[in-house]
Structures are given as C-alpha cells and as structure tokens.
What does this fold into?
Amino acid sequence: MKLAPLALAICLLAGAIPAHAAMPAQPALKVTTLDGEPFDLAAQRGRWVIVNFWATWCVPCIKEMPDISRFVKAHANVRAIGLAYEDSDKADIQAFLAKHPVSYPIAQVSLDDSPEDFDEPRGLPTTYLIAPDGHVARRFVGPVTEQTLRAAIGQ
It folds into this structure.
C-alpha cells in the first residue's frame, strides 16, 4: 500500500520530532553573568533583547559575535545576553572572551542547566529575538548578522 505524500510526511514528522512543552510566549530568563552580575529578561521590558546561545568551539558563533556587538552598540533600545552553552570551565570561557571581546554580558549555561523557558538549542548558534513586550519575535538557528537583526527589528 502506498501512502499519499502528505500522510507520509506527517508520519515521518511524528516520529522525528520529540515531544516537549512549547516555549512560553513570554519566556523568563534569570542568569548570573560571568562578571557576577544578575541578568533578568523581565527587567529589559521596553527594549529588544537578543538571547544568543553559543559555544567557544562553534565557528559560526565566533563569526557572528562582532555583528551582535556592533548592532547592540548602534541601537540604544537593544540589549543582548550571550549564553555560553557548554560544560567547560568558567576560566576557559573568560580567556576566550579576552581574545574575542563582546559588548554585551555573557552567562554560562550547560546541558544540565539550560534555561527552562527556552527550547534546548538544536544547533549553535541559536538566537532568540525578544520584542519589547517580552514575547519571542523571532528565532534564528545559525548565525545572525547586523542586516538580519535590522530586518527583524525593522530598524
């Protein structure tokens, strides 16, 4: 018996995508940055926020970091938080950042301690663009540029 293409696609997708709870429309995020400062996404209401999952070993992540930095510096109504998604030592991440500085705070998260309101990244980099009202305006899997951020925000 032959399945219709749509039925086959539904069957394949049903087995390929693991079931998990959907992200909340307005995700919460409270982390402590590598500098020991608290970062609370809710405190950023009224601004756009770039939430960027990355890793020191991720070449596309390293490539996008200067673009995110420049974009944040150029837009007073935009903030960013980098989430170093790895289990390496904090000192190793700080040494990496000394060679690749950014204009936004960085916090470390791991597979065992991923922010619960955000879906686990399926690839790195993964970036969430949070609108001024706190809802997820866009999710990017793969590197972002100043141009893609500008187009997504409309500035």
